[in-house]
Amino acid sequence: MQTPLQAPYIKKVGQRGKITIWAVDGTYVRTHLDEEFTNYGEHYGFTCIPKNEFWLDKEAAEDEQQFFIDHLLVEYRLAEKGVPYDDALEKADKAEKSERKKAGDIEKLTQGGNLPDPAKVHVSLWKRLESGVSVWIIDGREVRSVFDIDFTEGGHDHVYEFVPRNEVWIDNDLEESERPYVLLHELHERNLMAKGWTYSKAHEDSSKLEYFCRHHPEELHAMLSKEGWE
Length: 230
What we know:
Mean pLDDT: 93
Strand content: 15-25%
Largest sheet: 4 strands, mixed
């Protein structure tokens, strides 16, 4: 009988030389290890990840894993050689963009070389708030392939110029149980930025609030109500 894996490990999905690639419980990682963990990571980006391991968040639809692995291979090998992390990340983004283009994502979503109508990435309207803000579940793969390769979890019009005015986007790659925590982060961040806060300050404050609610889920509904979610 196989011994059950300990959190956050879910299953081994591959091996690249000395590097073991794991699917992990991203909710657990963000709650207990690093709230900034997104779709994937390696040791030089997240110290909670052991060396010689890649972590891929369990996707709602496992259709981007190869893109993430290609990215991490470049990022890790460069960082391991002493290349500054930001430089390694930039080169890894270029490699990932190339793979997304080969997969046909860009050709499928663009016409005549123009960016698509942002509304085309809408999957479903989650809710329209009394403030006039619309919260949409969007196709995260399409957004990363065409608009911003670094888009993860969620975003809004005060951060991303491609997000239409008065819209908040939540990535459909997130499991439904985690979406309310990301929603809280995005609404709080947007409300602070609307008051004149800088992104970095608003993001830091929103991360603290999200982290608090992940550890005190009984407070989540009340905190969402404060941000206009009724």
